[in-house]
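call fold(seq) -> tokens
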Amino acid sequence: MNELTPLADRFLKACQAREILAATAESCTGGMIIAHLTDIAGSSAVVDRGFVTYSNEAKMDMLGVKAATLEAFGAVSSETALEMAAGALAHSRAAIALAVTGIAGPDGGSAEKPVGLVWFGLALKDQPAISAHRIFDNRGRDFIRRETVRHALEMGLKALAG
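ret:
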């Protein structure tokens, strides 16, 4: 158990209360969100699948992210996060999908897209997908990835409560 386990458990219970399945589409976290969910006994009742789409090719092949989107906006963008979330729903049995794409560092940042920038996508079945971004303090790769997991689960909880 770690500090994110209670949050992951609350997310699973919220999905269970709504009788829906969840999916994730992860880039910068490399599967950490789905790992935190499936670390909890009984998660198979609500977790459908997790897509780890680290490369642009994986985003296109597994989630249907358009090449034009990646070319115009880049992998770390609102547009890509939205397409990732929508693609996770379309390619699963889930009714909620959490998507993340960002720059966890230590390299890869720019003035426009600094290390710590993460775009989040959230899709609920029969509703338009939403996106949000955060710029986490550059306190190391582990910190950025952990905070990304936290924020994604919090977004999911907020969406399920609404």
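The chain has six helices and five strands.
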